[in-house]
User: Fold these one by one.
Assistant:
Number 1:
Amino acid sequence: MSTDTLETTTVETVKMNGLQAINAALMEAMEADPKVLVLGEDIADNEGGGVVGVTRGLSTKFGTMRVRSTPISEQAIIGAAIGAAMGGYKPVAEIMLMNFTTVAMDMIVNHAAKLRFMSGGQSQVPMVIRTLTGAGNQTAGQHADFYEAWFCHTAGIKVVIPWTPADFKGLYLSAIQDPDPVIIVESGKTLFVPMDVPVNQGPIPLGKANVVAPGSDITIVSYGQMMFTVMQAYEELTKAGVSVEVVDLRTISPWDKETVLASAEKTGRLLVVHEAGRNFGPGAEIAATVQETLFGKLKAPVGRLGAPYCSVPFAKKLEDAFLVQPPEIIAEAQRLVAMG
Amino acid sequence: MSQTLENRAKPDAKTQLDIYRRMIRIERNDDATRTQIRRGRITAPYYSARGQECIPSAISVLLNNDDKICTIYRGIHDMVAKDMPLRPLWAEICGRVDGTCKGKGGPMHLTHPETGVMVTTGIVGSSMPIANGFGWAALLDGTKQVTVAYFGDGASNIGAFHEALNLASVWKLPVIFVCQNNGFAEHTRYENGTSVDQISKRAIGYGMPGYTVDGNDPVDVYAHAHAAIERARAGEGPTLLECKTFRFMGHVFGDADGYMTKEEKAEAMAKDPLPIYRQKLIDDGIATAEELDALTAKIEAEVNDAIEFAMACEFPSDDELRRDVFAEEIPA
């Protein structure tokens, strides 16, 4: 990490990638609060500090009672996190890849998410589930899925998918102290692209979107690593004279309706882009809500782009076709703008 | 073979009587629950544990109030044994706002942290991974607290059992895994669904002690639970206890028991732990019949009071649908 001295702003920043930002957030949270725990497969330093090194250094600093590597037992990992959370701790449980949440779904859906409600508020499950996913590295159909819609559909768990390292830091700090279970999805590229992070980046509230770029012709809503693709399209659209407002949703559930509705009302056009499947994807919920609320005020129907109805493919050519690419976003945005 | 326990702790007279008190409290409460359902005063799925009273009773006399249990849908006996007060229990099974869960959990999901009833799951096997988390918390807190995970014989065939026992052993967690083996996984006979003749043998694969005990014998359950709890409190790790028993009322209320023979059921019911234990207490001079009758009457009064209390409670308001989803109420 190197400190940049910026002439134009008063906020001192450091360049770091998402991985470093999450690591910094965990370090800070564990330092500040002895109740914060970390567990998961290979997460302690003896096992390499995490599959891509997100948790590196934690067990050395805080010991292996608070930072525990586990067997490859996803139900046991989430179960232990639930019990520890109900026992007064704030565990951060890593499920190495989002596809592996499928073998812990009972623990996540039937227990972590529901115990507060089902116990009439007696049980609190303040835990964070960290998980990594995303297509683009030819890992095929069982290592790259975006399953956020499943969790958004489950009452009682918050779903966060950050894009920038600063957001990772701030959203993790909030999630760890949140009284309810939160799943944070780390999508491939977001861990490795360095960006500026304010030196004293504090908590960023969950449930708040970020208007990344103001515009007046169309609103594009996205999140996670798809934001990189959206920003490429944004550059091209800007060059072509289309004024795009880009909204990074950041928290998918509960989502920031206020910001999205205000932006869509202002521009009159909305395009939702995500890596998750388009069928029954989060874009469907957003589109429906916006159309219900702004019917008559929109200049075009809400557009949705997402993955086709198939598994993530292996062959690079197919994987490229599977993922939404900048030209599709540009074409769809221009089509919506041309409608009126 | 299941392991054999060397030093067997014996419950003293007072403890034996306390075990009986818990057993009769379970039995009277269960009987009243079935009566109320039959009369149409409650509508609820009910999984009677009639016949299994001895197991949690002989274990609970060894537990402190802050020791925890994680149990399952057939688990009201485990809660009653842990001395959960009956008024909020009944209000919950009647779906009233004064229930332990404000009527949002029901008979399959009672929760009462004050008496250590932390989680009651309707998912077979799921009590175990969560119990481990309480065990981890106790180790971090540096307390001697233990957690008992109750489950049935069917649950020993689900992945959660294996993941949880393995992790508990590797982490030396203060958890006691108590399998109440009643011979049937829902309607499937034990031997048609389970690869070993004794579930306790599975403990060998997870590097922990495993015992098969007579779940109808309070003295046998007590001795083994004592050893398991002492081991957990001493930081030596978990134990698997398989308590052999029988459920007299089938899987769920209304079950016609079509999957077992009449003879088999009659034979099991002849081993009903309640009358046998009652007679033993009398024979051993621990209590007189009159004393035990008085105890039963007192418990019946407690149960009746709880029922009438519950029936008089209000139903939860519809606003409860927006509460407890998250800590912060969902706006209307």
Number 2:
Amino acid sequence: MTVSISIKNLSKKFKVNHKVEKSLFGSLKNCFSKKNTVEIFYALKNLSLEIKEGEIIGVIGSNGSGKTTLLQLIAGILKPTRGRISVKGSVLPIIDLGSDINPELTGNENIFLSGAILGLDKEYIRKKYSFLVKFSGLEKFIDVKTKHYSSGMKMRLAFSILLLANPDIVLIDEVFGVGDISFQKKCLKKFQKFVKEKKTIILVSQNIDLINNFCHKALFLDKNNLIYFGDSYIATEKYLTNSEKNYNDFGKKEIEITSVSLLNSKNQETENFRQGDKMILKLGYNNKKDIKNPMFGLAIFSNNVFLIGPNTTKSNVLPKNLKKKGFVFFEIESIPFNIGRGHLTVAIHDFNGEILYHRKEKCKLFNIEKGIKHKNFSDMNYSWSFE
Amino acid sequence: MRVKHALSLIKEFAIVDLKLKYQGSVLGYFWSLLNPLLMLITLYLVFSLIVKFDIPHYQLYLLLGILIWNFLSEATNGSMHSIISKSGLMRKFIFPKESIIIGSCLASFVSFLLNLLVFFLFMIIFRVDISLKILILPFYLLQLFVFVLGVSFFLSSFYVRYRDIIHIWSFLLLMGFFITPITYPLEIVPFHLLKYYLLNPLARMVVDMRYVALYNYIPDLKNFLITLIISVFVFVFGYLIFRKRKSHFVEEI
């Protein structure tokens, strides 16, 4: 597959004038007053990634994390402040539907105006006209000025016009909530057709299921930085845990979990494992209040089903003199889990598990691919060690 | 491909502008003509009853001046308005932004031409001779269009950032109206000031166009060349500024 979109060290800077002075006089005034009202902020910082032809990429992140800016940069609507972005083929941005509809024109007139903006031939629009009107479901209102349309109708009209274009790359920004259920179904069908035609698609959405179901890969942006680019499930889970950070962290932290990482047999940090591989969980702790005899425990989930919950008390492995700061290793000799996605919850309790010191839920995600499955998880071999 | 895209967009934008102006009716056109006609009546009353100039066909003299000035004012203000009203489009699509300005000016130019037809109708009504010399009028019209387009490019590229330009411009237009021989003859300008007075290229254009359209007279070619050079210069200057600033429009609007 050839590269469709290549982004290197892309940064986009915006100047925000807090006191909006859109006038010559105001600008002059600002020149003389010492108060600086202009704030510079980066909508995207040092982003590098490559998207191949025919890939479907999801983009997730909270509002204002730079998702739409990224689409506008790819579409060429905005110019990058720094870095390079090269796009192969024609781009169709489906952003902010309906804002381009001129309220004083009829639906029919809007179709031809928008068609011209898309660079479509007038003859071609005429040929597709009846199909388009039928798709939008606006047959009765097509010769009515669009200011009399409801907002849903406007979006339906705008979306239908866009479908006339035949782009190589489609950028979709939160538009799968457009119109009523029947129109949404039509949109989804069209989306699937794009997929079948092997178009490169970039999909910005808050709909986690949509990203998980359709996207090969996903991009998680947070505070204008790229947090993760890869497996869409891991991206969406990271996004979910990130936005629920405060709800996934429990306890007073008398002894705190400082780091959690997953290592493979070569001691490299990774999220991808195969059945039969070795998996090591490395857990950093800080015993701030010198708790004697704590219990380290974890819960392993596979495809959202709880599998096993080992802890140091059960295994009777706790060393007599635990360091104040250190690491606990949990090692699985040969992964017996099913293929799919899994996650981990780690916790530190007192020896009997009665007092909770610190628990981090869903703090680590992993991916299990097909390998050699030796055993059932019930007779899984694991060991604890300390450092 | 890009040029074809731009041309079809210019056409579309111009048609939409005209459509919205006339709201698809013949009556709509008369409403838009009403403004210059009412102005004509007012100025005619003032300048033929109170201040008296010895100008043949004064009402037509006045009308042509008003129509030219009306075109300048409509095209420049219309361009500034359309660059803002197309901000939604610019945020979503890539298209040649020049076509917004050209389309808007073209729409104003078409209604100017329609108004000129009314002007010729008046000429027939007032029994003014129309000769073949009028065939050179299109050159003057074209030159005026190029000039107005240049001014529109210049104004709109800054209007995106500085919204009070429209107020400054409307003041300049008002001032220009009085330092251009629209209501009065060129002859009343004191001779020692004429040199400075003619620095205003519109003064030359208005005078020449009147000669051609109304008085069956072919003006000095030198005059035409001067205004042509100025018009082309204004156009190139305005366009270059527009081209330099257009990539910032999306962020500034």
Number 3:
Amino acid sequence: MTVLVKVMLKPGVLDPQGKAIADALHRLGFTAVSDVRAGKLFRIEVDTDDPKQAKEVGSQMAEKLLSNPVIEDYELLLETAGAPAGVAP
Amino acid sequence: MSGARAPRVAVVVFPGSNCDEDAALAARNVLAADVKMVRHDERALGDPDLVILPGGFSYGDYLRSGAMARFSPVMESVAAFAGQGGAVLGICNGFQILCEAGLLPGAMLRNEGLRFVCRDVFLRVESKRTPFTLAINKGDVLRMPIAHGDGNWTAERRVYEELIARDQVVFRYVKPDGSRGEGGNPNGSLDDVAGICNVKGNIVGLMPHPERAAEELLGGTDGARLFKSFATTRMAMQGA
């Protein structure tokens, strides 16, 4: 089973990278862009078919290593073979 | 006084540390220390008086600066040593590692300007409650180099207020005249913070490099004052 872990800076935490990307987009003519936040996405293969277990291990990995709870939030998405990723319940 | 024994200093070497030898040199030259280089996968620190987590790019700065290093076996020993009140100095990447390990509060963001900044900065000593600043006057301005891309220290408002209340801000970036303001802060850190300590004051982290300003040949000796302060504090404690 594939676990997708999305890590984003918390709302309100300054994102210099996102701001630089927004500035670049504006220069390219994408004037409708009002804000950009940059994040990270981890695609992790876990040896289980049990969504509950995959979600559990995904949370543990996100909390222990993949995100820093001081500045970042994370979100889990599960991907089963042949099915598109959906937000874990 | 029983201060005849040379201080023992453990310098931790992670894969990607690149200021470990500089830190060892400063410890030998300024403290006349007996220095032990301790690898990331070792656990024995060698009964040190001081542990230095040096600058560099441990584990290639992958994921987040310091995120991987905090899980090195040696960090369990460092945490235990610090927990018993042992003096720990985290320089640059060492500071990032201490934050990731939860031994110091807050976290690092990318520099505000997104650039890696490598230049001299001016620091104002804000607290004397650490062994590295006890023998320096509060308000003294020190010149030291920085070299980092992720030094934009931040913390949640509530955490920062506690930090202020407990006098845990040790260094702030200032202008050469010692005042705060435009041009002083090189990375956008919260409230111009350049270095902090834990509640007890025995763990200190700072982004600037005192070991790179520890002798005239390197362009300045202000960094040596932190090491000298540590020596003075140690002697005073042994004499007490």
Number 4:
Amino acid sequence: MNVLHRPPVQGNSERVTRMRHVLVAMRGDKLALFALLIFAFYCLVALLAPLLAPYDVNSTEFMNLENAELAPAWQTGDTRFLLGTDTQGRDLLSVILHGTRLSLTIGVCAVLIQVFLGVGIGLLSGYMGGRLDAFLMRVADIQLSFSTMMVAIVVLAVFQTLFGHAAYQQLAMLMLIIVLGVAEWPIFARTVRACVFAEKEKEYIDAARILGVSKARIMLRHLLPNTVSPILVILTIQIANAIVAEAALSFLGLGMPPNQPSLGALISSGFNYLFSGAWWISVFPSVTLILMIFVMNLLGDWLRDHLNPQVTRG
Amino acid sequence: MLSFIGRRLLQAMFVLLIISFVSFMIQDKMGDPVRQMVGQSVTLEQREALQQELGLNDPMLIQYGRFLGRAIQGDLGTSYYYKEPTIDVIASRLPATLELSFAALVLVILLAIPLGVFAAIHPKNLLSRAVLLFSTLGLSVPIFIVAVFLMYFFAIEWGILPSFGRGETTSVFGLWQSGLFNRDGLRHLLLPSLSLAFVLTPIFIRLIRAEMTDVLQSDYIRYAWAKGISAPRIYFIHALKNTMLPVITVGGIQLGTLVAYTILTESIFQWPGMGLLFMDAVTRVDVPLISTYLIFVGVIFVVTNTLVDVVYSLVNPRVRIPGYS
Amino acid sequence: MLRRLLIILCLGLSSMMCLAVDLRVALDADPISLDPHEQLSEGGIQYSHAVFDPLVRWRQDGTFEPRLATSWEVQDERTLRLHLRQDVRFHSGNPLTAEDVLFTIERLKSSIDFKALFNVVQDVDKIDDYTVDIHTNHAYPLLLNILAYVFVVDKTFYEGRSEIVKFGQTFASTNVSGSGPFTVRDRVVGQRLTLVRNPDYWDTQSVGNVEQLELLPIRSDSTRLAALLTGGVDVISPVAPIDIVRVQRTPNVKLLALTGTRIVMLQMNQARRVEFQDIRVRRAMNLAVNQALIVEKILRGYGEPAGQLSSAAFLGHVSDLVPQSDLERARELMKEAGYQDGFRVTMMAPNNRYMSDERVALAASAMLAKINIQVDLKTFPKAQYFQFFDQQAADIMMLGWQSDTFDSNNIYEFVLACRDTDTGMGAYNAGRVCDRKLDDAIVLANQEMDVAQRVALLRGIEMRAVDQAWVIPLYWQPIIWASKQHVDLESVVNFLNFPYWGDLHVSVP
């Protein structure tokens, strides 16, 4: 592959070339292409869940205890419920489609907040150093000591005093995104800071400084690109963590309301069924989640390998 | 160096102050501790009297002041449920958690370093592709799924290993109840530490491979090849040493993940460590114990992060940590 | 060493009861203290039955069995004479006398948890060393019910250091001298409580042969079940309904399920919502909820669908009051009331207090949605839930009430009576029901000594409550245990869920 010779020009043309390089390489790697297709499928499903789901989840008929725990269609021959039903008699396929939509939205949005906060603070902390660094990193220590749960309890309390209980159902998702976003930014911040430390002593940064390039520009144009690789490595892990953490919160009464189950909540409640023989209740949501995270991780890996300016292949 | 550590200590005190303050401010959101300790027919009046007695009705700041006053004398409070100083309660559960984390870390190191290095050295090898694929897969499976499956198969279906608790322990110097020195204790340790290792190993395999790959591309390694230094020496002395820097950093950061994972693993395997203690304390609204646990975890974070920074600059002398020279 | 000797001795005797066995029991909670008078909770009373003896105890058929009291007779309307067993020694070696009973009841009257039950006892007179007279403030039909809570403690052992402190270490919370079938060997708080058989136990007729009893708290349902299936423990309780199938599928493990008396219900707050003040709406809601379906699907057929508050074991139970569910009629009623388009309400429920509580609440909310009542359901762990319950923070609240006296009137007092912070009546009345006539009947039923008249009174209250549809009763929660086949659990577990471990016989394979 001879596309790899990057012209030594800064700016747009380089980015365009890099994107083209990614696309070309993608076509060559079947696994990555496959992962991309599945991921696109997930995104599509999340977007179109209300249209794709065989049942209307908001209908009063949707949750019918009469239908509780029916096995998948190929076991019972009952074609109404392709993947069977859950304990409340909800069509599992519809619930999973909506759960995927919820989980993906919560996970991605929360991690975006994490990245935004974490990268910003990490860059500042690493490049500025000194007191600012000490202060920001101690804030990070404090933040990490309080598990997500504690943050959730505080945010919930604030929300309750602001909006009351009745509004909870409408705001639950927003609240969760904020909670999960705020709770784990230090992971990004510390990683970025470590990268910046290693990078900022290098000659090209010194050169830029001497040439009078502004601090903001050095951070954003020179240091930031070098942090992309570790960020991508943890990004996908964090999305998975956020989705699972959301499930743990629902147990504390802090997650999504029980009548709008997310994928994580489905799995954690499904796990009680492992012993009962109603395997589909735990297996389908778990497989859905694991596959989703798996392809995200594959893509993350792959992107990391191909975006990293240091790595040259050929 | 000394002034660096001194400054860090000062900062640590500040961190702990804030942690204790925040945990104090949120405690009435966690439930009513009195309610957990009395029967259903105890009247509201009597419950209020008890709250009064515990000083729970005083303004938060006064309660906090009282707490600080005692904390300075080394008294972080008495657990409502255990009725012992919270520090003692945590100390009695600490060995279990440390042994669990230690066992998991040993497994992680034994697996992650050889596999990660191998995958970096031979990127095209089928085995290293398989290792990578499996580590990606392992990364995608939430820990409670791993733990429950391990328990289901090894304990219930096949009946090879025990499913809960710590088993027999032996006393080491009368200070430490250890499960590492007898068969029963080790058997009990296996499943929980495997679950922990299962989710931590992929992270480290990926990290080591990624960093090692970067290092192997760098100029000084090329120079080393050109100089004719032997392959093992390049891989394991020159390259691995530089790989370990980010690995240690991220390892330190992953400590938070480890704490969170021990809470889950201990709950699933009824492992009598700090994580289970914390979950129980939350259920019982044992506020003094919750606060102490948070402060304790805070101490661990500050200490490891300081250590990580020190190790960081030892391994890579080019890096200057602010305040440390 | 001593135990080995004992076993050898027993083998020599070759008597059946002597084949001593060790038993490990995993429960969802452990007693918070070794002091039997510190907390009135299921775990606490279960522990008390093992290490102490009550004056009387419940038989499985709901009658009373003499224990430390061998017999009793009514002296007058307010006095009961008790004759005490004469051959009882405490674990400390001290003999049990009337003094100990006086001391114990005095202590109960000062215990925060037991106070409410024992306030009715005016004083206790010692007649001789083995006879006491118990005087009550007024005629009290439930005196024996509360005497079942008198776990007699050793006066000489505790005197002078018998204070009960809820939040702190006391002598009594760590030191024990009871007269029960077991003594405490070792307690690691939150991890295990080890009891060993009391070799000098007075009840030599007991078939119990458990030599060492280990009680382990395991909070998670799945972990507890796994412990039984892997053989780590011999007995567990409770078993989550969804795990019942698994227990039944396992060959050497058996299930024991009883109908309990804890009534799980939904309370509709009339002070928060005008809609709930309309009896047609309340009736419609009662009709919309299908109790039988909840029990069948969520509790796997265990537990009893309820159309009233008193379980069949209680005097207030009216057998005609079966749960009704009729969606058509419910919709009609809503239309009559002018709410055919429905309304939106909030509901709260715990998620770790009662069996499958969250699932039940969700199912009930879906059933209410069918008559256009949109329910915004929120669930909390019990620690936070009961704070919200006290604040009556939602329009519909879930409550599971276990009568401490095992009598209907206790439910009425706490759940239906008008709220009164002075007397504590109506403390769990989250529906804000208030009916003065009903209150009078409740007070009367607490003093009526004639059984037939008392039954009539209680049933009157029950029927009025159902007629007014003040609450939505759901079901009586089942008591579910599981054990290895050779444990004869059936003979010691009762509808109160207080197993008498001392009498447990385990056959040795």
